[in-house]
Queue: 4 jobs
Job 1
Amino acid sequence: MSRSAGIHHITAIAGEPKRHVRFYRDILGLRLVKRTVNFDDPSTWHLYYGDENGSPGTALTFFVWEELPSGRHGSGEPQEIAFAVPAPALEFWRKQLSDHGISHKDAPARFGEQVIAFADADGHKLELVGSDAAARIPGWSNGDIPAEHAIRGFHGITLEVSNPATTARVLTEIFGFEPVGINGDRHRFVSKGAEIGTIVDLRVTPGAVRASQGTGTVHHVAFRASGDEQEMELRKRVIELGLRPTEQVSRHYFRSVYFREPNGILFEIATDDPGFAVDEPKEKLGDRIMLPPWYEQHRQQIVAALPALE
């Protein structure tokens, strides 16, 4: 059985765009690798952040809806987005967050790793995790965050669920994740296919209300497929597990299949290819607004309607 190499990207919902860009690009030091629109709603931004290339396992994307009400955290939701940094970099990040007035705390050590917990202004739950794997990956500097301290990509994602056994079946039987242990209320599953974006924690909080989507919540989690062949193999497993995947959809930078796992969380299968350099060179990623070919004829109207980012 082929295995997914782990998380491809995570997509969340943001509010005020200028504040949002400043936080993720300027304070966290992620590269804004793509300025485009929501392909299903071209009146709104879809922004992609990541490492220098926006590599699978590093891509954090946002639908930016200024007028959307805040969501509610609860069961049936991807919650904490965890970034991987070398363990010695955590002291740098404590100072960086403090210097920018961002409240943070040291969470209890988890599976032997140190964790800093904080949130953005929209309410997204974020973590920085000191990771041995991160220390083996070269960092990219935006000019403000030194490369040795830079975020390398995702450490993983925590899914808040009411029935962890059913989500565990999806992780193991479709994507090939392996259970590696329990730490407190967390059940950890790991993909062995990469160094980054390999961890999914399942957590049950007794009495948790049902989550509702809105600003400050995660929209979906995408898992990696090496290409079309593996994507179709994974899609077949989704069907065999009694779930209902979509047909393949072109997202220009990857090709996608979507389905909801039994606890109601939206999962995506996304191909590693072609990547974000398909329509602009690596050194220019994120410099201008890129539209898929089917929207180019409406570029003037679409761009005029988008709110300013800076």
Job 2
Amino acid sequence: MSNKDRRNWQVFFAALLLSGGISLLWLSSTAVTDEDLIIPIRHTAQLAFAIYLVVLVTRPLQQLLRQDWTAALLRSRRFVGVAFAAVMTTHLSLIAYRFGSQPELEYPLPSLLVGGSTYSVFYLMLITSFDGPRKALGPRKWKILHRTGLVLAGIIFGLPRSLEQLSDPDYLKFGIPFAIALLIRFTAWQRSRRRGS
């Protein structure tokens, strides 16, 4: 096992234990009603989104700023992505527990299909963050897979479900940082185009 693969496992389990441990600590102090379960579900989604934003802007920031800290962040992007997968695993576990412990709750089939497909892509991204699967997949397919995952995460986290949601404060906590991240990526893309031409 390479040093990067070993570090991947360390980061994954550290993020899993941290996010899962905090969630369990919260639930152990409550009566574990449905409202109590929704709180860590929401918070793990917010934490995963914050990590996702870091992954989203890492390379563009290096292209724009070319500072030591942006270069260091770019070198660590693989581990940031692994931490994202770990927090999303805690998030999925909480959702599964919520619906498993309350049979009267129904999970809409479209949401189940979209969520299941998205998680499949996330876990393929996690698997191909390790050296062996990454080499087996090849650089072109690896890039397509990981770009697809970034787009799917952006759709789930950042895009509003309706026009009315654009003015919802709960959405704006996601929407505004997502818009800023997209602006950073667009600016870096425009600059690279100008340099290329």
Job 3
Amino acid sequence: MEQQIEIIKKWLGTGSVNVFGLPFSGKDTVGIRLAELLGAKFLSSGLILRAAEKEDTTLATELGAGNLAPTELFRSIILPYFGRTELAGSPLVLSSVGRWSGEEGPVMNAAAEANHEIKAVVLLNISEEEAQKRWDVSKTLGDRGDRSDDREKTILDNRIKEFREKTMPVIETYRQMGILLPVQATGSREEVFANVIAALTKLAQA
């Protein structure tokens, strides 16, 4: 895998990899490890928005119901991050940045303007049924903290609906651009991560 990582690093430069998937598909797990191995900065819109909701009741209400953040709020909170000085000169691994159809253009522009061009989009594929099973296991383990968007089954159902209706068109845009990398995410963490590395290596060598 070391040789693959070096190939990806050279190809990526200061660019970005954006990781998408249904709730509980492993976006942050994959993204954090990928960032560590690539010497990249990890940028999760979910983490940033969940921090921001403490100061914004509108945002807190939307996220707590399992809805995506309103686009204007998303743009005002997330897009400025690309230009932060602490990110300059580093590649980025993004976790679902720009989930609502129509946000992909501003995200790509903001990334490119900050010299973090989005070069690949990884889609971690699990079924909606698998997402539900993983939610059940997570509730038993209590391993997600006190996240408002994980508390009730109905909220998870809405998050899945939001993904299907609002995020899938975003993913289709990336597919048409030729930078989408679908990866089956139902195996072990090691298997899934190896598949992500293999897909990125193949794109880097294309």
Job 4
Amino acid sequence: MLLGEHAVLHGRRALVCAINKRITVSLFQCSEAVVRIVSDLGTYEAPLNALIDHSDFRFVLDVVRQYPLTQGIELKIESEFSSDIGFGSSAAVTVATHAALMGGVENRMELFKRSLATIHRVQGRGSGADVAASVFGGVVAYRAEPLEIHPLTESFPLTAVYSGSKMKTADVIRYLEERRALNADYFERIFDRMDASVGEVIDDFSQLGRMLILNQKLMEEMGLCNAALAEIIEGFQTLKVPAKISGSGLGDCAIGLSKVSKVGTFQTYALQVEPQGVTISR
């Protein structure tokens, strides 16, 4: 997420991008009437018509339940990044699994809608911005309600820095909603400023760095910057690199608008905006 966290849950626009780290879901037919999942998180197997819930595979199992399978399948899931570092793995694996079971990506809007429905069933709430990035690729200006998906043809380097911890998105949303209930007008003004910042970047993409800095201040005003994230942001500032928290906050990553090899003692990830969204190979 580049701009607009939380505001996107309240009718405002966000700016999100796909990155050059992929999750691959390979689909194989099985002679046995089972669903088998093989991934770095472990192996799962259950009868085709009696799928058992599993915390590591909640999104994949929800996807599988949406298709009338007549024979067993094996899904092999491979990832170029850890699911712990806030790179949108839940959205990516959801989109990839739907694409595999749909058998194609010709109707990307249908793929988006099915994937977002899975996120909502499993997670309870989510804007769908990360789903849009996974489906369409590149940079996407996104509004959840009313739905707007506006791809932008931009590519640039980013550095992501993992803070060392994460807080579940649903828990951060709950925390913020409790704060918002105490001063709704204050938060509405913040959301409006985030929305306006997305508009400025749509009109002039050279403003992205300045809007990253502004949105970081707004994330701090909302109470979403913990000590580790503050240290990362300070490290980027020392290097004169525009930076902000990326995601719901209180954990996960911060991103900087440049390629940086070192930010303090934290693990860095060199990224590039990936113009190509979900693809199918046969």
